[in-house]
Amino acid sequence: MAEMTIRDALNAALREELIRDENVFIIGEEVAEYDGAYKVTRGLWKEFGDKRVVDSPITELGFAGLGVGAAMAGLRPVVEFMTWNFSILASDQIINHAAKMYYMSGGQFNIPIVFRGPNGSAYQVSSQHSQALEAFYANFPGLKVVMPSTAADAKGLLKSAIRDDNPVIFLEQETMYGMKGEVPEGEDFTIPLGVADVKREGSDCTIVARSFTVPQALQAAEQIQKEFDVSVEVVDPRTIKPLDIETIVNSVKKTNRLVIAEESHPFASVGAEIAYQVMENAFDYLDAPIKRVSTVDAPMPYARNLELAALPSVEKIVAAVKEVCYL
Amino acid sequence: MAEMTIRDALNAALREELIRDENVFIIGEEVAEYDGAYKVTRGLWKEFGDKRVVDSPITELGFAGLGVGAAMAGLRPVVEFMTWNFSILASDQIINHAAKMYYMSGGQFNIPIVFRGPNGSAYQVSSQHSQALEAFYANFPGLKVVMPSTAADAKGLLKSAIRDDNPVIFLEQETMYGMKGEVPEGEDFTIPLGVADVKREGSDCTIVARSFTVPQALQAAEQIQKEFDVSVEVVDPRTIKPLDIETIVNSVKKTNRLVIAEESHPFASVGAEIAYQVMENAFDYLDAPIKRVSTVDAPMPYARNLELAALPSVEKIVAAVKEVCYL
Amino acid sequence: MPKTATRQKADDKKTRVASKNGKSETNETASPTTPSAETDIVDVYDVKEAQAEYNKRRKSQIASIKKLDKELLREMLYQMILGRLFERKCAEVYRMGKIGGFCHLYIGQEAIAVGSMMALKEGDYVLTSYRDHVQAMVAGITPEAVMAELYGKATGNVKGKGGSMHMFSKELGFYGGHGIVGGQIGVGTGMAYAQKYKGTDNVTLCFFGEAAVNQGIFHESLNMAQLWKIPCIYICENNRYGMGTSQKRAMSIANIAKKAEGYGMAGEFVDGMDVMAVREATLRAIERAREDGSPTLLEIRAYRYMGHSMSDPGKYRTTEEIKKYQERDPINLFQDSLREAKVFTDQDFEELVAKATAAVDAAVKFADESPFPDESELLTDVFAE
Amino acid sequence: MPKTATRQKADDKKTRVASKNGKSETNETASPTTPSAETDIVDVYDVKEAQAEYNKRRKSQIASIKKLDKELLREMLYQMILGRLFERKCAEVYRMGKIGGFCHLYIGQEAIAVGSMMALKEGDYVLTSYRDHVQAMVAGITPEAVMAELYGKATGNVKGKGGSMHMFSKELGFYGGHGIVGGQIGVGTGMAYAQKYKGTDNVTLCFFGEAAVNQGIFHESLNMAQLWKIPCIYICENNRYGMGTSQKRAMSIANIAKKAEGYGMAGEFVDGMDVMAVREATLRAIERAREDGSPTLLEIRAYRYMGHSMSDPGKYRTTEEIKKYQERDPINLFQDSLREAKVFTDQDFEELVAKATAAVDAAVKFADESPFPDESELLTDVFAE
Ligand SMILES: Cc1ncc(C[n+]2csc(CCOP(=O)(O)OP(=O)(O)O)c2C)c(N)n1
Ligand SMILES: Cc1ncc(C[n+]2csc(CCOP(=O)(O)OP(=O)(O)O)c2C)c(N)n1
Ligand SMILES: [Mg+2]
Ligand SMILES: [Mg+2]
User: Fold this and answer.
1) Which residues pair with D69 in a beta bridge?
2) Residues D112 and D300: beta-carbon distance below 8 Å
3) What is the pLDDT of residue C164?
4) Which of A112, A239, B94, D61 is deepest in the core (most CB within 10 A)?
5) Long-range contact pairs involving A39-48 (C-beta distance under 8 Å, separation at least 24)
């Protein structure tokens, strides 16, 4: 085990996969000479050069398309979006091309590509730069969607995503890049896509959290434990699609209560999907309605006090747990 | 009352609003000289000329942006996407610009614009041309989302959408353009956005359906009535956002059972959101888990038999109702 | 007098696949007069002018034809004839309800696919738009597999999952069959990027229509291709219309090849009714690309005989206009040159027509007799394992 | 000898807002030597060459300055100085943590906003990117409202909802303040479309950076603008870098104005350090636009003194390079011309600097003392009623 930040864990995963497979290359804005806008690719251009780490013009649709074509022709591109907000410009290549190519071609052309970058809010960057887009992509068949919340998950899942033969939407969180965690040693450490992780064991209530809300959920759980001696379990799906609903359902069958915490806007969110699937599979086990905590249904404001009011928080999660536990 | 097709009802709404307000203009691919790829704008170019009905190049992002700017400057553009699949190329202008402008500008610049066109499947047009995108847009604050299922609703809602001071995503269905229905006479007939409609009264089970699945739900209800003497209520939200959850919840409180039928893919769908909100508001009234019928979670295949197997159908809805009613 | 000779031959039914008993070939119920001045695009590029330029090239062309391998020439002509007859058959069976969804035919543009693709070598890639039947067959996908796909059968080129717009063959280097206007320009750029990345001297031919040029991805892709020397040959098939909209109603300039200058890229205008001209321009572009990866934009101008798709009534152009362009039918022009070059006789032509006719009939029979896909296919090929 | 006169004055602190005691002005910790040959872009456009051309224009420029209204000239210079000092203050308070999120400064580009916007008339529109403080102030938004917005205060230009990147004023015809690179090009095209639709002779100035030119929406918008004669003036502020990437590493050609030809549009290259040249080029474009709606692409070349944003360490260019460009500081050049034209004395300059300094200090005080928005604001302005 080595302690490192999520940023460094991602960087290590990229580096190891660049070494392991020469068909892997990184392309995106400022990923090379600049070391990445958020330094996730730090040092990689110096080490691997122009061929493997490529600075692209600001043409999201174009370089996403380039990645899709390169993947079709056998390479394994890792396409960085400086932030996922900008991927909306590239969504046609992701949704209409990458996601459908394998099916459309009758199983002839799979697209081994990873689209990655920071998702969600980032300290007062306002409405055009603060969106969490997991629901936007998870609705479309043909895409896998991953959202790590710890350094170990970040490294293990990114390596699996790069080795996966399908398009993977890999969603990071800028405000979490600096968070530290223990990461197992060795190039062989990977975490399979589609497997949830119980981040905290508990018996009285389940919180399903992902990315941004996982640290909040863990804090909330501690607080609830102290204040009310109620034991909260925190489940992190880690992969949104395919979703490990079984682990979530088993937790709910044990606790009979569920809170879902997410950074995205609420309407037709991944949280709504999890709620539906839990109800479908554990309806009779639910002792209270499932409660969802999301970012408010308004564009993200700039002012710090408004931004904080818009986002999910430990307080909001605690309140939700109290509600479903009738505390 | 006059009987007309959904196509003609939409055409009448456009024509009346073009007459009523000279700031209204229509822009899109083939909307003018060609009378519209699906003939929704038939005759309008001949009647109103080049200024009011404009054929655009095939540049979805560009003409959507042009519409947003024109709306910012006080016009009321009606932007047609030949099909919504192509709007994905324009989604940055819709999501990052139209939806956020009013908020970002502190309430100075509202965007009175309607984006419209056919959504969903259209008889074997395959995966890149068969997507239902309501969840894709409804997740973002600042957009209203409308999905009519009858000629009267189509006309009344489109007129309200054009008069609305905000961006409206107006989703039609190509296979439904030819469906006939009674439409109230007169230019003043409108239907407010955000109000659901009970398309069939019933007491034992509620089906919430929209667009493509409304006629299917009504047939299913008849069939269930005949076969099992079970009375099914069919609620059509008509507007997805803002969602009239109250009407849906009241129906469920009466029937205690809910099936949601939708043409979109299931994951993080509008159906999931409706299920969540119903659970939140009527948890104790549900006698069975909510059942959702969606298009399968795979890209749309071309072969007719596979396409039919992929889509929701009367049979699938009947089966779902039987399941929630334990028949 | 070769010209009159040509005209006489033009009336010899047996050797003429092009014009069907003199009537203009289209599925359109086009109005006899121009519906709107806007849609009269003859001024943009005059057919007579094109023919005049063609006549200037003619001598040297005959000479180069004589130098070419006779079997290659035979195959080129055969593929043009096969493409023409296959598409005619599609129109016929589409009307019988055998084909669903959209169906975009290639009639009138055969010289572009044949002239350019037959200049490729092993390892080169090709991709195009939804108007893909002929490119697919020139790439080597059998008429059977294409027709069965149109029928939505399990034996189709992509197992009935794609239909008319989505033909693919990894084995044959045919990368589709894409339905989003302009989408394949980005994908093709990436395919060529991979060819260079792997250190090969292979190239990618990326076909798209003139209306796709207005899409942002054209601009984004050409900039990257020139910036990084990506061996992609961008072939704009200018068939004068994007659906019902003539180029001049959708684009602010007439000369698409000129857009290459905005990227510092090589660009060339090519007569798309002259298969030899297409071949030679493509060879020049291929040479640049194999050399150091330099991309090229080729504007190859032809004409779309049929409506945009089988459901296009085509009220936006006149029968005069269609006829005018059909005077320079690419198959007729090529046959005339071959005859003049004394490479083939009318009998050779008849044999090729017979062979193509048989291939098309066999394709229909195969498609008709094939089974529909099994329902279990619905959920396969979503993810690669 | 005007030149030496200039140089002497250059050392007179009181009248010089441009160079801060001779050191190059930037927030960057730039490396002394070129980090990579790639990033040395001096060969793309040589500063000496620009100065040489400038000197050729100089005489006629002095003449035209003499013809201009003195108060207009005073306002032009004042706005350039205000912009410079305001942005310096932003950097200062940003470091103190008073401003959150991104903060993109305009230092070095003042001549572009001032030269072009001050050529507009009532009813014309302006919009730009996230680098919008100076355009906002030239449009008439007060320094107080801009600074308060940067502080995220309720008294901010958009009530604290937008921040640095999103200044707007309907009343003043300032249409933002947009954060998506290139996004405003589509929006601006629509604004100008509306101006023509309404039958006015008004125009829209749409500003964007040179890196935004590579975005597809640039291509899509310019095609429509020329096709439909939309009175939009596209002003590419070529400050040589898109974040850490020089133009030559991102664009396949050096001459952006030339891209106008691909659309049949008027295009012009302008020295962005010369406010008079900017004014005159803009006036030519405005005349075309008012005449019949004809759009223009202006490439106005300046230089970004500071890092891309306050968080940019800027290791990708050298101090030599920065110094080289700063030799042609737009405020210095303008002051020299005004002095030479005998329009203003050093005392006038001092007064303007004092006035601007006071305005900036007042803005900071106002921002500091203003309240944060009420939490109820979170859910207002989502939809218009
Ligand atoms: C992004 C997008 N917009 C619109 C369409 C609908 N559409 C299909 S083909 C076509 C015309 C394209 O014309 P062109 O590029 O000239 O190719 P051609 O059909 O003439 O071969 C249109 C508008 C589409 N498939 N994709
Ligand atoms: C679509 C999009 N991609 C990326 C970004 C991140 N970004 C913000 S500014 C910028 C550089 C833009 O450079 P340029 O257009 O030259 O304008 P300048 O900043 O030099 O004024 C980038 C990459 C963004 N905001 N939007
Ligand atoms: Mg065309
Ligand atoms: Mg720049």
Assistant:
1) none
2) yes
3) 98
4) B94
5) A39/A7, A39/A11, A39/A177, A40/A7, A40/A10, A40/A11, A40/A14, A40/A80, A40/A172, A40/A177, A41/A11, A41/A14, A41/A80, A42/A7, A42/A11, A43/A11, A43/A15, A44/A11, A44/A14, A44/A15, A44/A18, A47/A15, A48/A18
Mutate to test the interface with A, among C174, C181, C187, C232 (most CBs of A within 10 A): C187
Question: B207: which strand partners?
Answer: B234, B259
Segments of chain C with pLDDT less than 70: 1-15, 18-23, 28-45
**DSSP state letter for B291:** E
User: Which residue among A57, A126, A306 places its CB closest to the CB of D251?
Assistant: A57
Cis ω for the linkage preceding B242 (within 30 of 0):
yes
Cβ–ligand 2 distance for A58 under 6 Å, the answer yes
Looking at this protein, which amino acid is placed at residue C85?
L
Helix (H, G, I), strand (E, B) or coil at D267: strand
CA D129 – CA D145 distance, rounded (Å):
18
Q: How many Cα atoms occupy the beta-carbon half-sphere of C42 within 13 Å?
A: 16
Enzyme catalytic residues of A: 60, 129
Q: Are A126 and A301 in contact (CB under 8 A)?
A: yes
CB-based contacts of B61, cutoff 8 Å, min separation 6:
A89, B89, B90, B92, B93, C216, D186, D216, D217, D220
**DSSP state, residue C374:** P
Tell me what pLDDT residue D20 has: 52
CB A24 within 8 A of CB A33: no
CA A85, A86, A89, A92 torsion: positive or negative? negative
The per-residue pLDDT for range B174-228, each reduced to its tens digit, is: 999 999 999 999 999 999 999 999 999 999 999 999 999 999 999 999 999 999 9
pLDDT score, position C15? 67
Residue among D152, D245, D373 minimizing CB distance to A30: D245
Contact criterion met (CB below 8 Å) for A41 and A185: no
Nearest-by-CA chain C residue for D222: C252
8 A C-beta contact, residue D319 and residue D37: no
DSSP code string of A218-283: HHHHHHHHHHH---EEEEE-SEEETT-HHHHHHHHHHH--EEEE-SS-STT-HHHHHHHHHHHHHG
Contact A306, D153 (CB under 8 A): no
Which residues in chain D show pLDDT less than 50?
1-11, 30-44
Taking the C-alpha atoms of residue B303 and residue B307, their distance in angstroms, rounded to an integer, is 6
pLDDT digits (tens, 9 = 90+) for A42-89: 999 999 999 999 999 999 999 999 999 999 999 999 999 999 999 999
How many residues make up chain B in this entry? 327
Q: Is D154 exposed, middle or buried (0-12, 13-18, 19+ CB in 10 A)?
A: middle
Q: What is the mean pLDDT of residues A191-212?
A: 98
Q: Tokens 């005049």 belong to which residue?
A: C52
- CB D241 less than 6 A from any atom of ligand 2: yes
Residue with CA closest to ligand 2 atom 20: D242
C17, C273, C352, D113 from C5: Cα distances, Å: 17, 19, 21, 68
Residue pLDDT, tens place only, D140-177: 999 999 999 999 999 999 999 999 999 999 999 999 99
Cβ burial, residue D320 (10 Å; 0-12/13-18/19+): middle
Both tokens assigned to B233: 């209520």
> Residue D329: what residue type?
D
Question: SS3 for D62?
Answer: helix
Q: What percent of chain D has pLDDT over 70?
A: 90
pLDDT digits (tens, 9 = 90+) for B2-45: 999 999 999 999 999 999 999 999 999 999 999 999 999 999 99
Cis ω before A242 (30° cut-off from 0)? yes
Chain C adjacent subunits, 3+ CB pairs under 8 A: A, B, D
CA dist., res. D96 & res. D117, Å (int): 32
Residues D371 and D92: their CA atoms lie apart, in Å, by: 21
Q: What pLDDT, on a 0 to 100 scale, did the predictor assign at position C46?
A: 79
